[in-house]
Design a protein that fits this description.
404 residues, alpha/beta, Rossmann fold, 2 domains, 6-stranded mixed beta sheet, 5-stranded mixed beta sheet, 15 helices, 44% helix, 14% strand, globular, disordered N terminus, disordered C terminus, Glu/Leu/Phe/Val/Trp_DH_dimer, Glu_DH, oxidoreductase, NAD(P)-bd_dom_sf, Glutamate dehydrogenase
């Protein structure tokens, strides 16, 4: 893959600026380690960010994207730090990423090169997982390349793993969060109109669970576009089309609109379940939703969250709503070398219990202190991480703001 060039600056200047930015981004919490790797033969370029391990070994998903940046991975690693602490499970924050097209024919070669380049860190300091652009089969490639069953989680069931996407654990948790939040704010989920931006593994599973709970899905989207039906989308039909056509399922369903339309339709509950930074101030000011549930990581920013809060709209933060994946990862981490497979029922039971306990706590704290739910949730996670750091003798200086 050709190396992207930023303007007319020489490559060595780009490298210096990137390193300066990373150094400037370090704060009282981390990152503890940033490892950038490359391979000349395959063109692989990637990064591992281990953010904070005060509460345990760094753990987070591995993504592959043609627009990946070190800053993006570092932000996601920080989110993992708070996510693990918020659900009170003992891992620290980390994230890895590969710059590349996940649909490229040489994907396997790139994945193997990435695994080899991080052999010093994997699995002693980090274990590969699944995120955008990677599948259970890709996790199996990591394990094969390093000849270590413990090198990755999210493996296919046939290899003794917990196939997160197949089970829909993250989307299930998002739906449980929506139900818990709706009850907290006095909104009946049954017959509520839900718009889900993103119909990938998370969005589809969330939609299916929300339908089971009585909600009506009025809009959803993929990279190919959005579909909207005020009377309710046939989620079973759309899911079948996704199996056959992938992102083009929305075209096959009919009535396709621009992809961002799913964020703008009339609805009661809005679930951004695709990419980060999709809800800006304008969408926050215009949405008719009474409740926003963050299925994706970092779909809002501090400014848009403030707009939603000022309007009196409830928001369930990402690291509260989409913690299903890390709960599954926790079970998988514990069983990586076991001959006995993890029982999925134990995962779903824990997801429901953790989410349904955390959501009213966070929304209640937000209302009582008149702060955004993100600030309330981060305060909970912040206190747990800080305590762990103090017990280890790391004792950071007082922190007045936690950056996401």
């Amino acid at each position: 893959m050709p190396r992207p060039v930023n303007g007319d600056r020489p490559p060595d200047q780009e490298v210096r600026e990137a390193m300066t930015d990373m150094l400037a981004a370090m704060d009282e919490w981390g990152p503890e380690k940033v490892v950038c790797v490359s391979d000349q033969r395959t063109g692989m370029r990637g990064v591992l960010v281990i953010d904070n391990t005060a509460r345990g070994m760094g753990k987070g998903g591995t993504r592959m994207s043609a627009t990946l940046t070190v800053e993006e991975v570092a932000r996601l690693a920080r989110t993992m730090t708070w996510k693990w602490a918020a659900v009170d499970l003992f891992h620290g924050g980390a994230k890895a990423g590969i710059l590349g097209d996940p649909s490229a024919p040489d994907k396997e070669d790139v994945l193997r090169a990435f695994a080899r380049a991080l052999a010093n860190e994997v699995p002693s300091e980090y274990v590969f997982g699944l995120d955008m652009g990677l599948t259970e089969s890709d996790a199996a490639i990591f394990v094969d390349e390093l000849r270590d069953r413990g090198a990755a989680v999210g493996l296919p069931r046939a290899l003794g793993g917990v196939p997160y996407d197949q089970l829909g654990v993250t989307g299930f948790g998002v739906a449980e969060a929506a139900d818990a939040a709706a009850q907290t704010v006095g909104l009946a989920l049954k017959d509520s109109r839900v718009a889900i931006q993103g119909f990938g593994a998370v969005g589809q599973a969330a939609a299916e669970r929300l339908v089971e709970l009585g909600a009506t899905i009025v809009a959803t989207s993929t990279a190919a576009g959005a579909v909207h039906d005020a009377g309710g989308i046939d989620i079973a039909r759309l899911a079948a089309l996704r199996t056959e056509f992938g992102d083009d399922c929305v075209r096959e369903y009919g009535g396709v609109q621009p992809a961002d339309a799913a964020l703008r339709v009339d609805c009661d509950i809005l679930v951004p379940a695709a990419r980060e930074d999709v809800i800006d101030d304008a969408i926050a000011a215009a949405t008719t939703a009474r409740l926003v549930v963050e299925g994706a990581n970092l779909p809002t920013n501090p400014s848009s969250r403030a707009v939603l809060h000022k309007r009196g709209l409830a928001l369930v933060p990402d690291f509260i709503a989409n913690c299903g994946g890390i709960i599954a990862a926790a079970h998988s981490m514990d069983a990586r070398y076991s001959a006995i497979p993890v029982d999925p029922d134990t995962i779903f039971t824990m997801i429901s219990a953790k989410v349904r306990a955390n959501v009213p706590t966070v929304l209640g704290e937000s209302a009582a202190r008149d702060i955004t739910p993100h600030e309330a949730a981060t305060g909970l996670a912040h206190a747990r991480v800080r305590t762990a750091m103090e017990l280890r003798g790391q004792r950071p200086a007082d922190v007045t703001e936690v950056r996401l």
